[in-house]
Amino acid sequence: MKLITAIVKPFKLDEVKAALQEAGIEGMTASEVQGFGRQRGHTEVYRGAEYTVDFVPKVKVEIVANDADVARLVEVIVRSAHTDKIGDGKIWVTDVESFTRIRTGEQGADAL
Amino acid sequence: MTEIDTGNTAWVLASAALVLFMTPGLAFFYSGMVRSKHVLGMLMQNFFSMGLVSVLWVLVGFSLAFGDGGGWIGNFDFAGLKDLATIENLPGYTGDFALSIPVLAFVAYQMMFAIITPALITGATADRLKFAGYTAFLALWLLLVYSPVAHWVFSPNGWLFKRGALDFAGGTVVHINAGIAALAVILVVGKRRGWPREAMPPHSLPLTLLGTGILWFGWFGFNAGSALGANALAAQALINTHMAAAAAMLGWLVVERIKGGHATTLGAASGAVAGLVAITPCAGFVGGIAALAIGAVAGIVCFLAIQLKFKLGYDDSLDVIAVHLVGGIVGSLLLGLFADTAVNGLGADGVFFGGGSTLLVDQLVAVGATILFSGVVSFVLAKLVDLTIGLRVTPEQEAEGLDLSQHAEVAYQFGGVPR
Asked: Structural domain tally of chain A?
């Protein structure tokens, strides 16, 4: 099993979620995060004093999926989160050692 | 003896309530500009003045300001409100200056000025005052700085009043007095840790704009109430107050937009307050067009004065010096140009109205005397408190925030893991 982690633009979250549901996922986790990549932050001005804010608000989406589905789901995220402007985000995939449903104790694919 | 006038009394009583409301307004104006870990500390410093100053005022503060003690300070004749419910008029309040309202209405009205004036200082020292030290400074400052200066300027027996200096509602007594005291205190307590290297942006400008609205509203009581009557002079003072705030907002925003590219909400709020400050000494002595000019000049000058702290290296956190000290000086000196006896026969004519430079010189003396006295005494008092009780929090407490370290409370609890 794999963990797909995607950093996307906050206003794209709804589209990403709808597209992933369409693609058959059973669940996902989303959290508000801040960070920067090539896109830098912005400048704020208070009474003439400028402050540079490096971190940009983003949403982090996490999905655990079977190995066979990963490529397709990544493709779905790329399509739904894409705006073709700087700051669209990143997706990375990591191995999941174990996966358990707390209510039943089921393991692996059964727990998805 | 002057008859009590019911209309005048009603207006002054209502004005007392309006001026009281300015202190929570100021609390929100300031607390929106601090970071979220210092919000309650700022609100508390302001609200606490409503408690401590009120008590001290009726016990001795009023008596020191308006008692019969000569030109420099009052006395203890009215300590504990003694005789004030029955006395016909206050010392010096005779002839043209006789009160047509109950003396107790005047006591209450002046109390609200005494509450907000030391509270103004807290904007400069934001995020670093130890609460216990602040309370001691507040008490000492009220009795040893505010009461004497109020006596000099407001009491008809005061030396600046007798000299001919004009201050309708507190340009010197309130704004210059608090502004220079702010500078004195920050020279004692020092800069916030990390300033100016670290960004310290406002945590909630909506609070600041709400506070500005409350201040603007309350300021009608501050300035128009200072006519001490429900009359034409009060109407003139009210429209002057409003027009100066409006013109100053525009002045600040125009310069801000030209220099920085944006007109900001904080700029709109700051400009309005700068105009309100500058018109305070002038409100009942100038005409409406003069009020527009005074406001516009204040908006521009106060915006430019913000840069002083970066050039000179003092950390006036929320720009009390640029807005209140500079704004107060602008208003007090422009009064020497724009004062018009056609508006108020008890005033004087300024340079532009055929009065020559006499009034301007008196205004300069009043400004200089207030800066010198308040600056020196405030510095000594702050130093005294700092050496005994301590006036500044520890570096750990400052990093943790005043809310938790001084008051064991947190302003905002949203999101996060339930506690």
From this structure: 1
Q: Which residues contact B18 (CB under 8 A, 6 or more apart)?
A: B217, B218, B220, B221, B222, B225
Residue of A nearest to B202 (CA): A46
Give the one of B202, B303, B307 whose C-beta lies nearest to A46's C-beta: B202
Residue B419 lies in a domain: no
B387 to B89, B131, B356, B390, B416: CA distances (angstroms):
42, 15, 48, 6, 41
Whether residue B157 is contained in a domain is answered as: yes
* Torsion angles phi and psi, residue B40, rounded to 5: -70, -35
- Are the beta carbons of B270 and A49 separated by less than 8 Å? no
Question: Chain B closest CA to A62's CA: distance in Å?
Answer: 18
d(CA A33, CA A41): 14
Q: Tell me, yes or no, if A43 comes closer than 8 A to chain B by beta carbon.
A: no
Per-residue pLDDT at B225:
98
A34-53 pLDDT, tens digit each: 999 888 888 888 998 888 88
Taking the model in full, what pTM does it have?
0.91
The whole domain housing A66 covers 2-111
Residue B419 pLDDT more than 60?
no
Candidates A44, A46, A50, A55, partner chain B, best to mutate (most B CBs within 10 A): A46
pLDDT given for residue B415 in this prediction: 64
For chain A, the farthest-separated pair of C-alpha atoms sits apart, in whole angstroms, at 59
The predicted-structure confidence for B70-89, as pLDDT tens digits, reads as follows 999 999 999 999 999 999 89
- DSSP letter at B353 equals G
Can you give the residue range of the structural domain that contains B143? 6-407
The enclosing domain of A66 has a CATH number of 3.30.70.120
Question: CB distance from A86 to chain B under 8 Å?
Answer: no
Query: CA distances (Å), A49 to each of A54, B30, B141, B262, B269, in order?
Result: 16, 17, 32, 12, 16
B196-210, pLDDT tens digit by residue? Answer: 888 899 999 999 999
Q: pLDDT band for A30, please (50, 70, 90 cuts).
A: very high
Classify residue B276: in a domain, yes or no: yes
Q: Does A45 touch chain B (CB under 8 A)?
A: yes
The CATH number that applies at residue B175 is: 1.10.3430.10
Which long-range CB contacts under 8 A does B393-399 form with residues at least 24 apart? B393/B128, B393/B129, B393/B130, B395/B193, B397/B130, B398/B127, B398/B128, B398/B192, B398/B193, B399/B193
Least confident of B23-32, B45-54, B247-256, B408-417: B408-417
Residue B1 lies in a domain: no
**Residue that wins the pLDDT comparison between B252 and B69:** B252
